[in-house]
């Protein structure tokens, strides 16, 4: 039993070998010289929510004014794409009349929702197969956030639909939707263009254009208020 007792001789009487230490959570994405240092374990829920909300708003700003190429890639998230997808699916639901004229809106919501996420996934897989050097979720994040111009065009077109429709207003909605389409495509290629090997950028950009064109056409064809 001497070997058994010797294991407990390391601790004085009454000492059970307490392990002491300090656990620090490193800050993420805080530039050097910035005094904002936070620990997410001690941070109030309100501050966490507001910080994440500011991060989403900042990404929307960079989609509207895509002057640099890394803002959506450094710390990706899917909150913005989820909000935009849900908003567009809600507004566009019931826009397609059925043969039985039931038009209850449920399947249309699902169609738009699945179209956005499945389309973004297909475009991302195509980019990866072409040799893109960004991660799957980074690409989905960019494609989702770049829906913002199309969502803005949807809001404007819906306001126009409250008036009596004529040919001029249809072409006005068409122009607004195509501006949103061009804006979204430009922003997405601005962020994703450099991730593709030389000589394959055209093959990566075409599915992006097709993806946004289909969604923009849904905006134009939406005629129910």
From TrEMBL:
Single GO cellular component term: Golgi membrane
Membrane-spanning residues: 142-162, 168-191, 203-220
Pfam families: Yip1 (PF04893)
Domain Yip1: start-end pairs: 66-218
GO term, biological process aspect, one: endoplasmic reticulum to Golgi vesicle-mediated transport
Main location: Golgi
Membrane protein topology class: Multi-pass membrane protein
InterPro entries: Yip1/4-like (IPR045231), Yip1_dom (IPR006977)
Entry protein name: Protein YIPF
The keyword Cell membrane appears for this protein: no
Domain of life: Eukaryota
Family in the record: Belongs to the YIP1 family.
PANTHER family with a match to the protein in the record: GOLGI MEMBRANE PROTEIN YIP1, PROTEIN YIPF6
Keyword Transmembrane: yes
Compartments reported by the entry: Golgi apparatus membrane; Membrane
Keywords: Membrane, Transmembrane, Transmembrane helix
